[in-house]
Amino acid sequence: MDIVLSGIRSTGKLHLGNYYGALLNFTKMQDTSKCYFFIADIHSLTTHPDPKQLHQNVKNVLVDYLAAGIDPEKSVIYVQSDLHETAELYLYLNMHAYMGELAKTASFKEKARKQPENVNAGLLTYPTLMAADILIHNADKVPVGKDQEQHLEMTRKFARRFNNFYGVEYFKEPVAYNFGKELVKIPGLDGSGKMGKSEGNAIYLSDTPKEIEKKVKKALTDSGPTIPNSVKPDYIENLFTILRVVSTEEVVNHYEDQWNRCEIRYGDLKKQLAEDIIKVTTPIRERILEIHNDDNYLRKVTSEGAEKARERASKTIADVREIVGFKKF
Ligand code: TYM
């Protein structure tokens, strides 16, 4: 049975990008694979180190996981900082990760630009911690959005390098996974880049229908095309990208047609888009409200999850210690 692993950082509430890039795939893989889903709270320290916020952020992601349909009876759900074995593997992998390649990573360069006052070593070694998350369970498939593709390439490189250096066939080379399809990138509603937890451009799974309508209404549009079949500007293409994931093919074709004939009615498009987003998020939001105060349940899920995750992780660490040459006197 394939081993599946993925995680989401605890840096805020989850949004449509997290859902279509990651979470929806998590729920689809639980019946056919051995799944590990964790909350990347150590990773979040690289950008969100406030100790007063951290626990609430971890709780938000945990509740969103459960509300979106990750079932603790089928999947192992745990908090990254509960599995010390990951931190230990991270340490060993760092001995075979080079400054140059880490500094070239797109996510490092972006973060260094965004927070020039805090370019910490954790940001630089973010990809080795991610590789440790994946390799500690020797995962085959890692369901993630498009922005994580480079990190997965690096994980494969680190696994290969470890095997070559020590002359073992120990780690497998995991792949970024989206059911044989292209990895997903959901854009923000502000016409720029991707939807992000801290970008102020997101629709959260916990947003009320009113909030969603308001956000969609505010999305940037224009007076419409004047030349038939013209290429859409980015901010319009973004609305269509979201429409393609939440709506039916028929709806998408209808608005593509309107666009191509220079008859696009943005008001109708936005109304339909908001309606279809609300259809997806409503059951999740209701479940969030049901469980977000059930601390006993949340404690049970995470403590049992950490225990189950440790079964495989402690074996990996024992093997790795032997491979790198640590011996008892
Ligand atoms: P994070 O928290 O940034 O994102 C979590 C997941 O959501 C996906 N995602 C998106 N997908 C499509 N469109 C978007 N706008 C969008 N925004 C976010 C991300 O691709 C990701 O799958 N490094 C990871 C966390 C992590 C991890 C791991 C993942 C730590 N260790 C090991 C897999 C395996 C991250 O940045 O998550």
From TrEMBL:
Matches recorded under InterPro entries: aa-tRNA-synth_Ic (IPR002305), Rossmann-like_a/b/a_fold (IPR014729), Trp-tRNA-ligase (IPR002306), Trp-tRNA-ligase_bac-type (IPR024109), Trp-tRNA_synthetase (IPR050203)
Entry GO CC: cytosol
GO BP: any one term: tryptophanyl-tRNA aminoacylation
SUPFAM superfamilies from the UniProt entry: Nucleotidylyl transferase (SSF52374)
Record keyword Metal-binding present: no
Motif ('HIGH' region): 10-18
Catalytic activity, EC: 6.1.1.2
Subcellular location(s) of the protein: Cytoplasm
Coiled-coil ranges (or none): none
Catalyzed reactions per annotation: tRNA(Trp) + L-tryptophan + ATP = L-tryptophyl-tRNA(Trp) + AMP + diphosphate + H(+)
Pfam families hit by this protein: tRNA-synt_1b (PF00579)
Biological role stated in the UniProt entry: Catalyzes the attachment of tryptophan to tRNA(Trp).
Quaternary organization: Homodimer.
Protein name in UniProt: Tryptophan--tRNA ligase
Organism of origin: Fermentimonas caenicola
Gene: trpS
